[in-house]
Input
Amino acid sequence: MKILSVVGARPNFMKIAPIISAIKSYNTGSSALSSSAGKGRIDHFLVHTGQHYDRIMSESFFQDLGIPEPDASLGVGPGTHAVQTAEILNRFEPILLNERPDMVIVVGDVNSTLACALVAAKISYDTNGKRPLIAHVEAGLRSFDRTMPEEVNRVATDHLCDLLFVTEQSGIENLKKEGIPDEKIFFVGNTMIDTLMSFREMASKSDVLKSMGLVERSNGSETITPYALLTLHRPSNVDNRETFSGILDALETISARLPVVFPAHPRTRKQMTSFHLQNNTPLASGLGVRVTEPLGYIDFLCLMSNAKLVLTDSGGIQEETTCLGVPCVTIRENTERPVTVTEGTNLICGVKPEAIVNAADRQLARPKSNSTPKFWDGRASFRIVDILLETLV
Ligand code: UD1
Output
């Protein structure tokens, strides 16, 4: 049987890596899968759409996470949502017709996720309309904010797919409310957490803290300087000058309390320049806020694990900080991952400067606490491969 997986943008790589690894374990007979032994070899084919294309946004993740070279690279690059999506549609269809997999796996909520699910849902391998089954990993998450491109991608993708792999209870409820039948929904856990658990130890050996001068030596022992870690890239935060500069105002106050490490996304950097915000305090002073290039997975995981506080507008980082027990402030009006608030370490604060500072202060006073939502146990990918085999054989 043949399974084709799709990746396109940075957050996809952490979600697919453990699934590819679970398929490999199954093929070599070293798998922890319970019920699937002897169901025949899985041929796996990996497509990279090239939505993210830089070494720092893409290639370094393949290296860090041990993802095999893509079997096909579509090289779509940047563009408006319409152009990028259309390019993926156009370039993915011939690959699918040529490879004719039994199953297509899409992950997350980026433009590549929706575009490839759409091609697979409408393809016809023969005159009988035969098409692959389509599985969505990280289904059912909803922010209920249709101004987010990712929310449109989530809703549309879920309604195109045959198997919906859900990371948290809210996902099941959302899908049911939208009329998706029970038999399509599988609560398997979180493959991004599988990756985190696999690489946590390696990350603990990274020298990124030292190279950033965040380790102090005194009396022969080393202590980590308390610091906050910031990521920011959502269009709603960085494409609007007023919102972006308000967030920087909050940062000025927070960086007077503790240093802030800020690996800036390419989109964020571009907007800083076009809004002439790079000369803003605290960015220009270089004292409180250290702006760096985007980091590789291992170094970023090390920084996240040791941070006193994480400030973010990312989806995945809300989940990773919950798993690590690190207090997180989410600079957004909503989250599609409510379990990170109800069972985890996440606080949603909106985008107003005062609210961001208040939330940071509250979270800085909060002790580190570990919580593991159901099935965030490092085994989600094995559950997924088990279900794929049950379905295909
Ligand atoms: C995309 C995803 C978002 C995800 C984010 C993670 C969609 C709709 N958005 O947003 O869900 O959270 O990735 O990073 O799919 N750029 C580079 N180098 C790269 C990649 C991008 O310079 O390797 C530049 C692009 O040229 C563009 C900007 O960064 O100007 C934004 O990239 P784009 O892929 O459009 O969206 P993201 O904001 O990264």
In short: The chain has a mean pLDDT of 95. The CA atoms of residues 105 and 317 lie 22 Å apart.
